[in-house]
Design goal:
Layout lengths: L11 E6 L6 H10 L4 E3 H7 L6 H10 L12 H8 L6 H23 L5 E5 L14 E6 L2 H12 L3 H9 L4 H7 L2 E4 L9 H15 L1
Helix pairs in contact: 3-5, 6-7
Length: 210
């Protein structure tokens, strides 16, 4: 059953989460094919720090102008390097304190504007930022650690040291699985083979939304 009654004037909310590079975007694309609205926290996080935004100025003030590109846009690679510097754990803490309130506010706004029985809200750091209160049910996309590391290094063109640091900053795989209401295993099999699982979940979420 859902985590909480969906009594608010908004769609039923499924929080989709998982470790970095676990395949969340691919699973979201399958729900999108079923005409399910997707609210993506990663996209929201980019929107709230667009050029000229007050939040971008706060980041530059805290972490230095080196986190800005020549055109004034956020240098995400540089900010990531600074945030995950093991010798300065306060950097990541401060980054989260700056970003989290703005992201939460925009997520709520986008959820409420969706005209659909239910919505998928993709929040990679759902547990890390304690955002369970935003969702009615939790869907975890799970991946084995060795495949996750391989994907992350390849996707972001980073070395294993940085990749392992990023993975270590998130909750453990075991904790994620423990808190999951529903689970999709992410592996190297073709995406269309996961569609059957997504369709079953889709029908279940439609029932919950009623």
């Amino acid at each position: 059953m859902p985590n909480t009654p969906n009594t608010l004037n908004r769609p039923f909310v499924v929080g989709l989460t998982g470790g970095i590079a676990c395949g969340k975007s691919s699973i979201c694309s399958l729900f999108k094919k079923l005409n399910v609205p997707i609210v993506d926290a990663d996209i929201v996080a980019r929107e709230v720090v667009e050029v000229g935004s007050p939040l971008l100025k706060v980041l530059a003030s805290r972490f230095g102008d080196e986190v800005l590109q020549a055109d004034g846009a956020l240098n995400r690679r540089k900010l990531r390097e600074i945030a995950f510097d093991k010798s300065k754990p306060e950097n990541l803490q401060d980054l989260n304190k700056i970003m989290s309130p703005a992201i939460q506010s925009e997520l709520k706004r986008q959820i409420e504007e969706k005209n659909s029985p239910y919505v998928i809200v993709a929040i990679p750091l759902l547990f890390e930022h304690h955002l369970e209160h935003l969702v009615d049910r939790i869907l975890v996309v799970d991946v084995k650690e060795d495949l996750q590391l391989k994907r992350l290094c390849r996707r972001d063109s980073i070395n294993e040291t940085l990749a392992k640091s990023i993975i270590a900053s998130q909750v453990t795989r075991e904790e994620r699985l423990k808190k999951a209401d529903d689970l999709i295993e992410s592996d190297e099999s073709p995406l269309d083979k996961k569609l059957n699982v997504v369709v079953k979940l889709h029908n279940m979420y439609l029932n919950f939304a009623k």
